[in-house]
Amino acid sequence: MQTPIAPVPSSQTVFISGASRGIGAAIAERLAEGGFDIWLNYHSAHDQARAVQKKIEALGRKCLLLPFDITKIEEVSLVLDPLLEQEIPFGMVHNAGITRDTLLPMMRREEWDQVIDVHLNGFFNLARIFSKVMLGKRKGRIIAISSVSGETGQAGQVNYSAAKAGLIGAAKALARELARRNILVNVVSPGLIDTEMVKDLPLEKMLPMIPLNRLGTAREVAGLVNFLLSEEAGYITGQVLSVNGGLYM
Ligand code: NDP
User: Fold this and answer.
1) Which residue CA neighbors atom 32 of ligand 1 most closely?
2) Which residue, 182, 184, 190, is CA-closest to 221?
3) pLDDT averaged over every residue in the chain
4) What is the predicted pLDDT for the residue at 203?
5) CATH 3.40.50.720: does it fit domain 13-243?
6) Beta carbons of 227 and 5 less than 8 angstroms apart
């Protein structure tokens, strides 16, 4: 028997961390096109966040700007606790990220700590609070944005590779914890995507390693996130799905 497919599930809101620009902003816009309202977190890029908000509102959807540092557990609670008493979003996308690239012998302890903090402690701070409220609803989707570096390891990125690999382990464990309550947890793993994050990389050396021979677009990552939030993705959990032009197979 075929189950009917509804484009947007009953709760229409998705929280996205780090959505003032790049991949997060593209996810916010793509989801808004699909009918979702957005809780848009970012750190400090107010003008860019407001520009994304305008685009979402032009699509007829709501967009709540939530500027806070996801590494600060008290800030996270202070902002989210009162909101979660009013509404429990259907989805949570942990996308915020930073790089502090350098070879390990030269890496300062703070460069290690900052990267682990945003990716992994940020995931803890957000996923803990969202999974708790989703459990009560017996419904929800959690998506972590990892990276090809977390799957293969990348020279100059011991901190970032560790953080992104850690996210994969955390998401798989959480998927097992939450599956019985109908909450699905997956990882999207982009390769090289055309955003500010890659602007200083030696692309002429890197492009030949990518079978599709080009950078990916943020929109191409956003399309997969949109799918993972759809009814059609209802039997997918604990998976790592790559958008990498064949860079890692
Ligand atoms: P960008 O550098 O373009 O954007 C990063 C976003 O994260 C910004 O919105 C930024 O906010 C936010 N952010 C950073 N630190 C914090 C914090 N402490 N609290 C809240 N928000 C924060 O990155 P991309 O769009 O390129 O990357 C998005 C995700 O995709 C990251 O997790 C990244 O690791 C991953 N990824 C990217 C790839 C690429 O090639 N671009 C490849 C593989 C993975 P603000 O603007 O306010 O500072």
Assistant:
1) 97
2) 190
3) 95
4) 87
5) yes
6) no
Question: Where does the pLDDT of residue 8 fall: very low under 50, low under 70, confident under 90, or very high at 90 and above?
Answer: low
Q: Sort strands 183-190 and 37-42 into parallel, antiparallel or unpaired.
A: unpaired
Residue 201: closest CA among 153, 156, 147, 248: 156
Give the model confidence (pLDDT) of 104-159 as tens digits: 999 999 999 999 999 999 999 999 999 999 999 999 999 999 999 999 999 999 99
Active site members: 160
Our mutation pick for probing the ligand 1 site, out of 43, 124, 152, counting the most ligand atoms within 8 A of Cβ, is 43
Give, using CA atoms, the residue closest to atom 28 of ligand 1: 23
Cα separation, 233 vs 5, in Å, equals: 10
Percent of the chain residues past pLDDT 90, beyond the cut: 92
C-beta of 199 in contact with ligand 1 (< 6 A): no
Q: Is 175 in the pocket of ligand 1 (CB under 6 A)?
A: no
Identify the CA nearest to 130 among candidates 121, 139, 119.
Answer: 139
Atom of ligand 1 nearest to the CA of 44: 47
Domain ranges of the chain: 13-243
Strand order in the sheet with 140-145: 63-67, 37-42, 13-16, 91-94, 140-145, 183-190, 240-243
In the prediction, which pLDDT does 221 show?
Answer: 98
Instruction: Report how far residue 61's alpha carbon sits from residue 241's, in angstroms, rounded to the nearest whole number.
Output: 28
Please report, for the chain, how many H helices and E strands are present, in that order: 9, 7
